[in-house]
Every structure is written in C-alpha cells, then in structure tokens.
C-alpha cells in the first residue's frame, strides 16, 4: 500500500509488523471466503457448524446456551438465532429445564451427528490451500499462533 | 478468548486452520469494537482506509470494490452512505466520464488519522518476538501466494 511509502519506513522492524497486518487481513479474508463456500454445500453457515461442534463435544450431555456462547470461537454470535435455524432443520433438540423454565439446554440429534460426520469426511478440502507448507512450517505457525493466545 | 482443548484435530493442518479461524474472529471482534467507538461499520472503515492510503489522490469506485476483502458488499451504497456522513466526496473522472472517483473530505481524513493508532494496536502482538513476526510473515506469504 502506498501509505508505507508516504510515511517512509525508517525502522525495518516496523515494516515486518505492517506486513503482518496486511498479510493477516488478506489471509483471514481468504479463509472466510473459503469456509463460506465449503459450508454452503451442506446448506449451513460456518457459525451453525461451530455451534453444532460445541454441542457435539459435550454429547451425550446437554449444554445450556450460555455455555455454548462461551465455547463458540466468536463470542458475539447470536446463539439464539443460530439455534432456531438448527432446530428447524432437526439437527439439535431443545429442552427447558424443569426447575428453571428460562434455562434451555441443547443436545445434538442423530441427524446433526450425521451432518457433522459428513462435513468432517470432506473437510480436507479446507486445508488443501496449506499444501505448500512443510510439516516444520505448520508446526512453527501453530506454535507462534498459540503464543498469541487467542 | 478461550481455546477449546477438547478439539481433536484430524491433522496439524486442521489445527492450523482452527487457529487461523480463531485469529480471524479475534481480529474481527477487535476491529468491530474499534469502529463502533467511531460510529462507522467495519466495511466503511476498510473502504475509507483504502482511500486514505493514497490520499490526497482519489480512487475509482471500481478499484475500491475490487480491493475489498468482502466481495459481496454493495460498494455503491457503502460509498453513498459515507458521502452522506460527509467523510468522502465523489467526483467524475476528467478523462472518462463514466468513472466515479472517491476521495476523503477533511472530516474523513481526520477520522482516519484518529483511528490510525488504535487500529495498529490491534496488530501489535506484544507476545511475539521480531523473529517470530518475520517467521509468521514468511509462512502466511507462502500460504497465500
């Protein structure tokens, strides 16, 4: 971008950080697009998949909505709306707790588990773009990412 | 952000993908909070940042649209909204009357200047050493090339 040339890059370190910013923006946008396209073939969104995944991790125990929100990668997701869609499609089941009607717990249905299985069978297409990396580079990336501690 | 350790990864590649998704959510959340504080949307910010990069030289609407990371956004409406808010102004290209050029108004420019520092802070990643930043740059470049 031209802004860098306008400001002038005295310190080389500064450039690395600027580059990181640009690269991350490009890669994350690319990734978003890739995931959007991938999940579309299953007629669900990436967020709905993440929701299902959280519920599946706790199966056979049901999970309440607050816990699901907490475990979702995106804390700002509208879990109520996501759950309605998944409920309509029969991927999850919903139960009100007897002692507290406001407390709703969610469990995954057989149909939901089947869908997850199908997705996981095909999800290598999502990692195809990482084929240019060797195992050492993948490990390095993961190590550094963990350090950011998202 | 909590890292869900219960996840069994199919491979290290899938782990990388998961970490990258978490990173995306994190950056998105941060950018969202920032733009909310300045009463603009994230998409408006991205578009204005692009015009800011070449300021005072204007850019055509087409260039901005092609460089938006989110290809599905309705750029004409987005620019129209920014114009209404007084952040950008649209002019007809002198050489080609069909082309609309967009540039920042003084209000738009000063908003971008004000947002510079908090925006860069999102990407500071103090936990990383300079070497690690260099390494991660090399790896991401290899992925997207």
How is the secondary structure organized here?
The complex is a heterodimer of chains A (150) and B (145).
Chain A lengths: L1 H6 L4 H29 L5 H13 L4 E2 H7 L7 H10 L3 E5 L7 E5 L1 H13 L1 H4 L7 H14 L2
Antiparallel strand pairs in A: 1-3, 2-3
Chain B lengths: L11 H26 L4 H13 L4 E2 H7 L7 H10 L3 E5 L7 E5 L1 H17 L7 H15 L1
Antiparallel strand pairs in B: 1-3, 2-3
Describe this structure in words.
The complex is a heterodimer of chains A (150) and B (145). Chain A has 150 residues and is mainly alpha-helical. In chain A, 64% of the residues lie in helices and 8% in strands. Chain A has helices at 2-7, 12-40, 46-58, 65-71, 79-88, 110-122, 124-127, 135-148, and strands at 63-64, 92-96, 104-108. Chain A has a three-stranded antiparallel sheet with strand order 1-3-2. In chain A, strand 2 and strand 3 form a beta hairpin. The longest helix of chain A has 29 residues, at 12-40. Chain B is built from six helices and three strands. Residues 1-5 of chain B have low confidence and may be disordered. In chain B, strand 2 and strand 3 (100-104) form a beta hairpin. Chain B is mainly α and 145 residues long. The chains are: A mainly alpha (150), B mainly alpha (145). At the A-B interface, helix 2, helix 7 and helix 8 of A face helix 1, helix 2 and helix 6 of B.
How much helix is in the residues of chain A? 55-70%
Structural class of the helix and strand makeup of chain A? mainly alpha
According to DSSP, the number of beta strands of chain A is: 3
Report Rg of chain B. Answer: 19 Å
The low-confidence parts of chain A are 1-10
The coarse overall form of chain B would be elongated
Can you give keywords for this protein?
heterodimer, A: 150 residues, mainly alpha, 8 helices, 3 strands, elongated, disordered N terminus, B: 145 residues, three-stranded antiparallel beta sheet, 6 helices, 61% helix
């Amino acid at each position: 971008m031209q802004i860098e040339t306008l400001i002038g890059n005295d310190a080389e370190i500064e450039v690395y950080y600027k580059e990181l910013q640009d690269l991350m923006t490009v890669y994350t946008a690319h990734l978003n697009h890739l995931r959007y396209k991938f999940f579309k073939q299953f007629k669900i969104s990436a967020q709905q998949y993440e929701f299902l995944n959280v519920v599946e991790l706790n199966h056979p125990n049901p999970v309440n909505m607050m816990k699901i929100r907490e475990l979702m990668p995106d804390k700002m997701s509208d879990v109520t709306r996501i759950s309605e869609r998944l409920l309509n499609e029969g991927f999850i089941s919903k139960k009100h707790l007897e002692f507290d009607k406001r407390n709703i717990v969610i469990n995954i249905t057989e149909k939901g588990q089947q869908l997850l299985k199908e997705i996981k069978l095909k999800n290598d297409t999502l990692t195809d773009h990482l084929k240019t990396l060797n195992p050492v580079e993948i490990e390095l990336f993961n190590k550094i990412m963990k350090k950011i501690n998202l | 952000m909590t890292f869900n350790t219960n996840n069994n990864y199919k491979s290290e590649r899938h782990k990388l993908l998961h970490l990258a998704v978490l990173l995306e959510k994190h950056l998105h959340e941060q950018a969202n909070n920032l733009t909310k504080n300045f009463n603009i949307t994230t998409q408006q910010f991205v578009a204005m940042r692009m015009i800011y990069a070449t300021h005072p030289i204007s850019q055509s609407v087409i260039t901005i649209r092609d460089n938006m990371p989110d290809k599905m956004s309705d750029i004409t409406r987005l620019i129209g909204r920014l114009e209404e808010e007084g952040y950008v102004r649209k002019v007809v290209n002198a050489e080609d009357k069909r082309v609309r050029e967009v540039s920042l108004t003084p209000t738009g420019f000063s908003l971008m200047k004000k947002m510079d520092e908090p925006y860069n802070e999102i990407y500071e990643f103090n936990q990383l050493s300079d070497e690690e930043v260099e390494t991660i740059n090399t790896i991401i470049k290899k992925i997207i090339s």
